Amino acid sequence: MGINLKSKREIEIMRDANRIVAEILLDLKERVKEGVTTAELDRRAEELAGKYGAEPAFKGYMGYPASLCVSINEEIVHGIPSEERVIKNGDIVSLDFGVIYKGYYGDAALTVGVGNISETAKKLMEVTEKALYIGIEEAVPGNHIGDIGFAIQNFVEKNGFNVVREFTGHGIGKKLHEEPYVPNYGTRGSGPLIREGLTIAIEPMVTEGTWKVKILKDGWTAVTADGKLAAHFEHTIAVTSSGPEILSRV
Ligand code: MF3
Ligand code: CO
After folding, report:
1. pLDDT, tens only, 7-60
2. Which of 54, 138, 164, 191 lies at a CB distance of 3.0 to 4.6 Å from 146, suitable for a disulfide?
3. Could you tell me if residue 3 is inside a domain?
Protein backbone atom coordinates (compact mmCIF):
# COMPACT_ATOMS: atom_id res chain seq x y z
CA MET A 1 0.00 0.00 0.00
CA GLY A 2 1.01 3.57 -0.53
CA ILE A 3 3.58 4.96 -2.91
CA ASN A 4 6.72 2.88 -3.45
CA LEU A 5 9.67 5.23 -3.81
CA LYS A 6 12.57 3.58 -5.66
CA SER A 7 16.27 3.42 -4.74
CA LYS A 8 19.00 4.44 -7.21
CA ARG A 9 19.65 0.74 -7.86
CA GLU A 10 15.98 0.10 -8.67
CA ILE A 11 15.88 3.10 -10.99
CA GLU A 12 18.93 1.69 -12.80
CA ILE A 13 17.02 -1.51 -13.56
CA MET A 14 13.96 0.48 -14.61
CA ARG A 15 16.19 2.51 -16.93
CA ASP A 16 17.17 -0.75 -18.66
CA ALA A 17 13.58 -2.05 -18.78
CA ASN A 18 12.32 1.19 -20.26
CA ARG A 19 15.17 1.53 -22.74
CA ILE A 20 14.15 -1.88 -24.09
CA VAL A 21 10.57 -0.62 -24.47
CA ALA A 22 11.78 2.51 -26.24
CA GLU A 23 14.02 0.57 -28.66
CA ILE A 24 11.17 -1.78 -29.51
CA LEU A 25 8.70 1.07 -30.06
CA LEU A 26 11.20 2.75 -32.36
CA ASP A 27 11.50 -0.45 -34.41
CA LEU A 28 7.71 -0.88 -34.55
CA LYS A 29 7.14 2.75 -35.51
CA GLU A 30 9.18 2.21 -38.68
CA ARG A 31 6.98 -0.77 -39.56
CA VAL A 32 3.69 1.12 -39.34
CA LYS A 33 2.90 1.29 -43.07
CA GLU A 34 -0.11 0.92 -45.32
CA GLY A 35 -0.92 -2.81 -45.78
CA VAL A 36 0.68 -4.04 -42.55
CA THR A 37 -1.62 -5.91 -40.14
CA THR A 38 -1.67 -5.06 -36.46
CA ALA A 39 -1.02 -8.76 -35.69
CA GLU A 40 2.33 -8.49 -37.52
CA LEU A 41 3.33 -5.62 -35.24
CA ASP A 42 2.33 -7.65 -32.19
CA ARG A 43 4.49 -10.59 -33.32
CA ARG A 44 7.46 -8.30 -33.96
CA ALA A 45 7.09 -6.74 -30.49
CA GLU A 46 7.07 -10.14 -28.84
CA GLU A 47 10.03 -11.39 -30.86
CA LEU A 48 12.10 -8.31 -30.00
CA ALA A 49 11.24 -8.53 -26.30
CA GLY A 50 12.63 -12.08 -26.35
CA LYS A 51 15.82 -10.88 -28.04
CA TYR A 52 16.33 -8.32 -25.26
CA GLY A 53 15.73 -10.97 -22.58
CA ALA A 54 12.52 -9.27 -21.48
CA GLU A 55 8.96 -10.48 -21.11
CA PRO A 56 6.00 -8.66 -22.71
CA ALA A 57 4.15 -7.05 -19.83
CA PHE A 58 0.61 -6.82 -21.17
CA LYS A 59 0.06 -10.42 -22.35
CA GLY A 60 -2.25 -12.06 -19.83
CA TYR A 61 -2.51 -8.89 -17.75
CA MET A 62 -6.14 -8.97 -16.54
CA GLY A 63 -6.69 -11.36 -19.42
CA TYR A 64 -5.36 -9.06 -22.19
CA PRO A 65 -4.77 -11.40 -25.17
CA ALA A 66 -1.73 -9.79 -26.88
CA SER A 67 1.68 -8.23 -26.22
CA LEU A 68 1.04 -4.89 -27.89
CA CYS A 69 -1.89 -2.46 -27.90
CA VAL A 70 -2.55 -0.95 -31.34
CA SER A 71 -5.26 1.73 -31.33
CA ILE A 72 -6.19 3.32 -34.66
CA ASN A 73 -8.07 6.62 -35.30
CA GLU A 74 -11.11 6.74 -32.96
CA GLU A 75 -9.60 3.96 -30.86
CA ILE A 76 -8.00 5.55 -27.81
CA VAL A 77 -6.19 2.69 -26.04
CA HIS A 78 -6.16 -1.11 -25.64
CA GLY A 79 -6.80 -1.97 -29.30
CA ILE A 80 -6.23 -5.71 -29.71
CA PRO A 81 -3.95 -6.70 -32.62
CA SER A 82 -5.64 -8.79 -35.30
CA GLU A 83 -4.79 -10.50 -38.61
CA GLU A 84 -7.87 -8.80 -40.04
CA ARG A 85 -6.88 -5.25 -39.15
CA VAL A 86 -4.89 -3.74 -41.99
CA ILE A 87 -3.29 -0.31 -41.60
CA LYS A 88 -4.46 2.23 -44.20
CA ASN A 89 -3.21 5.47 -45.66
CA GLY A 90 -4.39 8.38 -43.47
CA ASP A 91 -4.61 6.35 -40.24
CA ILE A 92 -3.15 7.51 -36.97
CA VAL A 93 -1.82 4.51 -35.11
CA SER A 94 -1.05 4.39 -31.40
CA LEU A 95 1.41 1.73 -30.21
CA ASP A 96 1.50 0.98 -26.49
CA PHE A 97 4.04 -1.53 -25.21
CA GLY A 98 5.48 -2.70 -21.92
CA VAL A 99 8.00 -5.25 -20.66
CA ILE A 100 9.11 -6.89 -17.46
CA TYR A 101 12.88 -6.96 -17.10
CA LYS A 102 14.73 -8.19 -14.01
CA GLY A 103 11.50 -7.90 -12.04
CA TYR A 104 10.68 -4.33 -13.07
CA TYR A 105 8.24 -2.88 -15.58
CA GLY A 106 8.75 -0.53 -18.48
CA ASP A 107 5.79 1.13 -20.25
CA ALA A 108 5.55 3.66 -23.09
CA ALA A 109 3.38 4.63 -26.04
CA LEU A 110 3.45 6.79 -29.14
CA THR A 111 1.18 7.68 -32.06
CA VAL A 112 2.31 7.73 -35.66
CA GLY A 113 0.58 8.94 -38.84
CA VAL A 114 0.45 6.84 -42.03
CA GLY A 115 0.87 8.54 -45.41
CA ASN A 116 -1.36 11.57 -45.96
CA ILE A 117 -3.04 12.42 -42.68
CA SER A 118 -5.49 15.28 -42.13
CA GLU A 119 -4.39 18.62 -40.65
CA THR A 120 -6.53 17.86 -37.59
CA ALA A 121 -4.86 14.48 -37.09
CA LYS A 122 -1.45 16.09 -37.37
CA LYS A 123 -2.30 18.80 -34.85
CA LEU A 124 -3.86 16.25 -32.48
CA MET A 125 -0.68 14.16 -32.46
CA GLU A 126 1.53 17.22 -31.98
CA VAL A 127 -0.58 18.58 -29.13
CA THR A 128 -0.70 15.18 -27.40
CA GLU A 129 3.06 14.67 -27.57
CA LYS A 130 3.73 18.23 -26.42
CA ALA A 131 1.22 17.72 -23.56
CA LEU A 132 3.23 14.71 -22.43
CA TYR A 133 6.43 16.78 -22.18
CA ILE A 134 4.59 19.64 -20.46
CA GLY A 135 3.29 17.12 -17.91
CA ILE A 136 6.75 15.61 -17.42
CA GLU A 137 8.20 19.07 -16.63
CA GLU A 138 5.90 19.26 -13.61
CA ALA A 139 7.34 16.06 -12.11
CA VAL A 140 9.76 17.80 -9.76
CA PRO A 141 10.18 17.25 -6.00
CA GLY A 142 7.79 19.49 -4.07
CA ASN A 143 5.08 19.59 -6.75
CA HIS A 144 1.90 17.52 -6.50
CA ILE A 145 0.48 14.91 -8.88
CA GLY A 146 -2.37 17.34 -9.64
CA ASP A 147 0.15 19.79 -11.09
CA ILE A 148 0.90 17.27 -13.86
CA GLY A 149 -2.77 16.82 -14.74
CA PHE A 150 -3.45 20.54 -14.54
CA ALA A 151 -0.62 21.38 -16.94
CA ILE A 152 -1.66 18.69 -19.43
CA GLN A 153 -5.38 19.58 -19.37
CA ASN A 154 -4.73 23.30 -19.59
CA PHE A 155 -2.47 22.93 -22.63
CA VAL A 156 -4.75 20.44 -24.40
CA GLU A 157 -7.93 22.48 -23.89
CA LYS A 158 -6.21 25.72 -24.96
CA ASN A 159 -5.57 23.92 -28.24
CA GLY A 160 -9.23 22.99 -28.66
CA PHE A 161 -8.93 19.30 -27.75
CA ASN A 162 -9.98 17.25 -24.71
CA VAL A 163 -8.38 14.85 -22.23
CA VAL A 164 -9.80 11.41 -21.49
CA ARG A 165 -10.90 11.01 -17.86
CA GLU A 166 -11.63 7.29 -17.73
CA PHE A 167 -7.98 6.20 -18.04
CA THR A 168 -4.97 7.70 -16.30
CA GLY A 169 -1.23 7.39 -15.94
CA HIS A 170 0.08 5.44 -12.97
CA GLY A 171 2.91 4.59 -10.63
CA ILE A 172 5.11 1.81 -12.02
CA GLY A 173 7.88 -0.44 -10.71
CA LYS A 174 7.60 -4.05 -9.56
CA LYS A 175 4.01 -3.82 -10.78
CA LEU A 176 2.66 -2.32 -14.01
CA HIS A 177 0.16 -0.24 -12.08
CA GLU A 178 1.16 1.14 -8.70
CA GLU A 179 0.00 4.10 -6.69
CA PRO A 180 -0.48 6.93 -7.42
CA TYR A 181 -2.95 7.39 -10.25
CA VAL A 182 -1.72 10.14 -12.56
CA PRO A 183 -4.77 11.77 -14.18
CA ASN A 184 -4.45 13.97 -17.26
CA TYR A 185 -6.67 16.56 -15.60
CA GLY A 186 -6.63 18.23 -12.23
CA THR A 187 -5.95 21.29 -10.18
CA ARG A 188 -2.67 22.78 -9.03
CA GLY A 189 -1.47 21.58 -5.63
CA SER A 190 -3.88 18.63 -5.43
CA GLY A 191 -2.98 14.96 -5.04
CA PRO A 192 0.07 13.22 -3.55
CA LEU A 193 3.36 15.06 -3.09
CA ILE A 194 6.03 14.34 -5.72
CA ARG A 195 9.28 13.16 -4.14
CA GLU A 196 12.67 11.91 -5.26
CA GLY A 197 12.44 8.21 -6.15
CA LEU A 198 8.89 8.40 -7.52
CA THR A 199 8.52 6.43 -10.76
CA ILE A 200 5.40 7.08 -12.82
CA ALA A 201 4.02 6.57 -16.31
CA ILE A 202 2.53 9.80 -17.66
CA GLU A 203 0.21 9.13 -20.58
CA PRO A 204 -2.07 11.80 -22.03
CA MET A 205 -4.93 10.40 -24.12
CA VAL A 206 -6.30 13.31 -26.12
CA THR A 207 -9.45 13.49 -28.21
CA GLU A 208 -10.53 15.67 -31.11
CA GLY A 209 -14.12 15.83 -29.77
CA THR A 210 -15.72 14.40 -26.66
CA TRP A 211 -13.55 12.89 -23.92
CA LYS A 212 -16.26 10.29 -23.27
CA VAL A 213 -15.28 6.71 -23.94
CA LYS A 214 -17.01 3.54 -25.13
CA ILE A 215 -15.65 0.02 -24.78
CA LEU A 216 -16.14 -2.28 -27.78
CA LYS A 217 -17.65 -5.77 -27.51
CA ASP A 218 -14.17 -7.31 -27.34
CA GLY A 219 -14.13 -5.99 -23.77
CA TRP A 220 -10.90 -4.01 -24.30
CA THR A 221 -10.83 -1.51 -27.15
CA ALA A 222 -11.65 1.96 -25.83
CA VAL A 223 -13.02 4.28 -28.52
CA THR A 224 -14.24 7.87 -28.47
CA ALA A 225 -18.01 8.01 -27.89
CA ASP A 226 -18.43 10.35 -30.89
CA GLY A 227 -16.14 8.40 -33.25
CA LYS A 228 -13.70 11.30 -33.63
CA LEU A 229 -9.91 10.88 -33.46
CA ALA A 230 -7.76 10.18 -30.40
CA ALA A 231 -3.99 10.18 -29.83
CA HIS A 232 -1.84 8.75 -27.03
CA PHE A 233 1.77 9.29 -25.92
CA GLU A 234 3.37 7.82 -22.81
CA HIS A 235 6.73 7.84 -21.01
CA THR A 236 7.88 6.22 -17.82
CA ILE A 237 9.85 8.73 -15.77
CA ALA A 238 11.81 8.78 -12.51
CA VAL A 239 11.86 11.82 -10.25
CA THR A 240 15.42 12.72 -9.24
CA SER A 241 16.58 15.51 -6.92
CA SER A 242 17.15 17.66 -10.01
CA GLY A 243 13.85 16.85 -11.73
CA PRO A 244 12.32 14.27 -14.04
CA GLU A 245 14.41 11.71 -15.92
CA ILE A 246 12.67 10.10 -18.90
CA LEU A 247 13.47 6.39 -18.67
CA SER A 248 11.66 5.24 -21.82
CA ARG A 249 13.82 7.18 -24.24
CA VAL A 250 16.36 5.70 -26.68
N1 MF3 B 1 0.02 1.42 -21.10
C2 MF3 B 1 -1.21 0.78 -20.70
C3 MF3 B 1 -1.42 0.99 -19.22
O4 MF3 B 1 -0.56 1.53 -18.62
C5 MF3 B 1 -1.22 -0.62 -21.11
C6 MF3 B 1 -2.03 -1.58 -20.37
S7 MF3 B 1 -2.73 -2.64 -21.48
C8 MF3 B 1 -3.08 -4.04 -20.65
O9 MF3 B 1 -2.43 0.71 -18.65
F10 MF3 B 1 -3.48 -4.89 -21.49
F11 MF3 B 1 -2.02 -4.49 -20.07
F12 MF3 B 1 -3.98 -3.82 -19.74
CO1 CO C 1 0.76 2.93 -18.86
Report:
1. 999 999 999 999 999 999 999 999 999 999 999 999 999 999 999 999 999 999
2. 191
3. no
Give the distance (Å) from ligand 2 centre to CA of residue 6.
18
Residue 170: which domain range? 8-246
Distance 89 CA to ligand 2 centre (A): 27
Q: What is the CATH number of the domain that holds 214?
A: 3.90.230.10
Residue 225 lies in a domain: yes
CB of 178 sitting under 6 A from ligand 1? no
Nearest to 200 by CA among 152, 249, 245: 245
Tell me: the pLDDT tens digits for 198-244? 999 999 999 999 999 999 999 999 999 999 999 999 999 999 999 99
Q: How many helices (H) and strands (E) does the chain have?
A: 4, 15
**pTM, whole model, 2 decimals?**
0.98
Q: Do residues 39 and 83 lie in contact, with contact meaning Cβ atoms separated by under 8 Å?
A: yes
As residues whose CB is below 5 A from the ion ligand 2, the structure lists: 107, 201
The reply to whether ligand 1 has any atom less than 6 angstroms from the CB of 64 is yes
